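Entry for the shared binder. Reason: the reviewer on the internal report wants the predicted structure included alongside the sequence.
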Amino acid sequence: MTNKQIAAAFDMLAKLLELHDDNPFKIRSYANAYLTLRKYEGDLTGLDKEQLSSIKGIGEAISDKILELRTTGEIKTLKKYQDKTPPGVQDMLRIKGLGPKKVKQIWMELGIESPGELLYACNENRVSSLRGFGEKVQAEIAEKTEYFLMSKGKTLYHAAHGPAELLLQKIKMLYPQFRHTLCGDVRRLMPELHGIDLLTDMEPEKIEFEKLEIESSEEGLHYSGMPVFIHHASGDDYGKELFVRSCSETFLAAFPAEALAGGDEEVIFARAGVHFIPPEFREAPTAIDLYRGQDYRLIEVTDICGIVHNHTTYSDGLHTLEEMSEYVRKSGFAYFLVSDHSKSAGYAGGLKEDRVQEQWLEIEGLNRGYGDDFVVFKGIESDILADGSLDYEDDILQGFDAVIASVHSILNMDEGRATTRLIRAIENPYTRILGHPTGRLLLSRPGYPIDYKKVIDACAANQVVMELNANPQRLDIDWTWVPYCMEKGVKISINPDAHSREAIHYIKYGVAAARKGGLTREMCLNTLSREDFTHWLKSK
């Protein structure tokens, strides 16, 4: 059982209690436990009761329920409320932005008991008649419900790649005389995928699934809760099958058909007169020309020299500024741009002006201790207000080494207003990086609509860097817009948006997405050396 699954149980418990008008104290306790457990970076499955209780915000009662969940697979209190709540209503509670109070009203007053029924009711304009809803709220609910239904059955890459690699190791150990390779979405590093695709030259009916801990049922094969798809090919067809199942349809259609005569992938590329193209970059046909007669070099994790966009206990991070800085330094990076939330982000403990000054003094003290070995830069993630302005006066903004401008509120603007808002923030002379430009959360919340070309063009005109937020639930800007950024000369900063020490390693997911878009080392901001990054900070 993963940390995510344990945290999700308390999230659902809090929502079900609120749905049934239970004790507000308990609801708040379980909701807080969810937030704490979701951010916890260690392995909850290996902690005893005393260790669990020592986690800030997790007392004895919560610890007992965690242990109960780990040993029995369920929490009795949660099971009690699940048993008296229709499964479809529980699904509605999982729709982002649709809280227990609204779900209860929809359930009790309209008799709706599933997301599908809810979407149908929205399309028939029945939800707007509820007290406190109206047409605007109904439209938002319809959009979120449609997205929820569309996303169901998908998994994020960061949750799938570990189990996929483990399954591959197991089948190789069990049947070493055969060839086995991951293919499909997981090999292409797709941010969202439908399951684990595995190619083998072993006859699938001879695979002993129980020895691999693969569950087989009428619904198909599952491993670690994810669908598994077994594909078979043998002889010279194996390489061809692997190639076909490791690229997009448009890439495959543009690839010379005569090159697919057989042999391994290296032979296939050589036959086409093209250098080997990594599976993650086999998306657009333009990749074929980039590798024809030359070896195009995509960015790699080892190219990243500094960590940009991070949070500490000054706002909503889990670790102190010193703890974060030391971890970044000991992880082998040359610099660290801290960027806590700004004052408008009250929900995240955003920094008022006096706290900004306090943090600057601490940074200066840390840098005196580091000398020439490492440097901490003064940054901020400044909220973009509704009109596109930033939420500090110029005398504060000019004191930062770099300002990351991001939208965190009022996400329901139309494309015109949202685009104008971002462009105004980009044109602010203190903005150096545009943070997670659409605010999306993969499989949870679609990004708000923007005119990408206008936003990227504005970044080019104002020497603003575009963020590729490496948090695996964001990966925002989407990799499909990396080529246009490069075409316009807009550098991309691959930023972990880390709220804990270990989360700086989200960088690997950002690099994976950047490679899909064809990003090179030269077009990434934080591949700059400490000296060159310092020069960039002073260049505007």
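Summary line for the report: Residues 7 and 34 are 5 Å apart (CA to CA).
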